[in-house]
Structure prediction request, 564 residues.
Amino acid sequence: MGTPSASAPPPSLGFNVGITGHRAERIVDEAAVRDRLAEVLRTIQTKLDHIVTGHLFQAGRHPLRLVSALAEGADRMAAQAALDLGERLEVILPFTQAEYEKDFETPGSLEEFRRLLTDAGSVIVLDGDKHERPRAYEAGGMTLLDNCDLLIAVWDGQHSRGRGGTREIMGQAARRGMPIVVIPPDGSSATVYGSIRSEPMRLRDVPHHPLAILPDVVAALVGTYGDASEAAEWRKLSEMPPNPIIHEAYPLLLKLARVRPWFQKKGGWTPPPGPDPTALTEAFAWWDTAAIRAAQTFRSAVIVNFGLAAFAVVLAASGLLAGEFKWLFVVAEIVCILLLMLNATRATKMQWHERWLESRQVAELLRVCTMLRSVGVGRGIADPGDGGSNGWYAGAIARSCATQSVDLSDPVAAGAPLLEEVRGQANWNAATSHRMHLASHRIEKFGEVLFAIVLLSSIGWLGLYFFDEHLAHALKYPLTAITAGLPAVATASYGIRIILDFEGVAGRAKNISVGLNALLAHWEAGPKTAAALQEFARRAADIMLSDVAAWRLLAEGRRLTIPG
Prediction:
């Protein structure tokens, strides 16, 4: 069991460039194309170094990563250019290595392929069918786009000669809003297709700019925190919340509602497994811990506030029975009110509510990023501008991690860990739905019992009044204490139930569980291919993130205030 750091893990700067282009026979001037590729990569290098120098990424930068399928021609030329510049090569193979090597007819080509593959930092192997090679090349191109921020294309301006061709991959990149640097086969120029803020569109509609705009395009892709005030607010929210005294009020309520064991080993921050955890898993562990801690503290603060408010009323009502010691009850009531105000003020100052919302959103973005990367999808969920600072941070953390080596030639074996994760999420949400519904039901029944006691006491006193007015008169103060104090406690239980939204949590958790289980059933009934596995991961991510968006919209209106 470890102790989380005081601040969130800072992101380092990572950037992936994909390459698509013609085979060697369509390259007019190989030397010129190589020089132009090196120029483009150096331009990106220089901009990335400048961004790091500006201290936006406190943890430095990783090598620029060139993602290539290592086909003959442009793919290998760009790969070698990246390696010559000291950067990292990451490879997408549309088939198993043995099958893919059948594409390379000469011993020299095969030797070059194997050498570059050996130099690769990671390899994603797809399950391409040797009888449907164009479709396999298309799948490889789509996976390449799933793992890069910007695309370089060596293109002659002509239409594709088949599925998965250069023009088709460029069209897909344009529809994703991904900038493209286009180099003609003679290497005479380099043109940026796209702009500083590229939008999804058809390739023929994408604006063209000279290479001079590329540094600004890279800066926009990397993104920023925002202005100085937003950066300061972000840094405050990215500090690990402490454990205040009131932290255990929420677990105590769940124990009293009999939906949580009384004796349970306390959890704590668990660092990611393995000797060398990635920045992504480490960041997820930190933010998940922060979200759990902030949520428990906020919920506990709500319970304490309503509890103190109800207790103050009970003390005021009980003071009627105290006689000459009434002043003690008044003092205790004043103390309760002061503690209530102090608790509300501290909760606002410490931003428990905001920390909970922000931390949970970041944690879920990082969770789905981890899920997607396990099946060869390294981009597409958390991008700059998507979710403000949260989206920027999650995107930056994802970019800082190298592409994960994945063998999808056997999708069933490759997808087993992902399916286990999704199944675990479905089961956890089903159990959470049941617990929250049960807690809501029991808290509601508790309030109903208190009101029933008040009703029976009032009816009993009224009956007694007609039979023994003197005794009824003697019991009027106890009756007042009961009829004033118990409704206050019942109302507090209602307020706790509404602000903490037990039924809403139960409903959303149930929807997630149903959605994920339906997705699992669809996978079991459908074709077991790499493409289907990647689509499964995307749909699971959509289900989980759509719930986060809905939850946040509702939770933002349930802030901690002084009851009244």
User: Anything to note?
Assistant: The mean pLDDT is 87. The two ends are 42 Å apart (CA to CA). The longest strand covers residues 16-21. The beta strands are 16-21, 65-68, 88-93, 122-125, 150-154, 180-183, 191-193, 208-210, 406-407.
